[in-house]
Amino acid sequence: MKIFITGLPLEVGEDELTAVFGDFGQVKSLRIIKDRETNQSRGFGFVEMPNDDEAREAIKRMNGGDYNGNRIKVAEAQEKPNTGGGNAGGGFKRNNSRERSY
């Protein structure tokens, strides 16, 4: 099961968080999401645990808890919806009309 964690203190590292979730069972993978430019934690991450019962217990016991002074939220990760199309939006829209108004 993949678990989503938010509200993480910025100083928490992956090794520390792996140890915390390891108290509930085997951790297959863990990733704290970081800012691309600063490489600082963005305060959220994902944990993958192969045993669903252990993952549910971790969610139940940790959700809403205090972690180094921060209240964290822990829940089963939801799959990102596939919105189709490859354009993520943003930028300028080009007016393909040949008419121009000044």
From TrEMBL:
Residue ranges of the region described as Disordered: 62-102
Database matches in SUPFAM superfamilies: RNA-binding domain, RBD (SSF54928)
One Gene Ontology term of the molecular function aspect: RNA binding
Domain RRM, chain residue ranges per copy: 1-79
Record keyword RNA-binding present: yes
Composition-biased stretches (Gly residues): 83-92
Signal peptide (residue range): none
Entry-linked InterPro entries: Nucleotide-bd_a/b_plait_sf, RBD_domain_sf, RRM_dom, SLIRP/GR-RBP-like
Keywords noted in UniProt: RNA-binding
Protein name listed in UniProt: RNA-binding protein
Native species: Pedobacter frigiditerrae
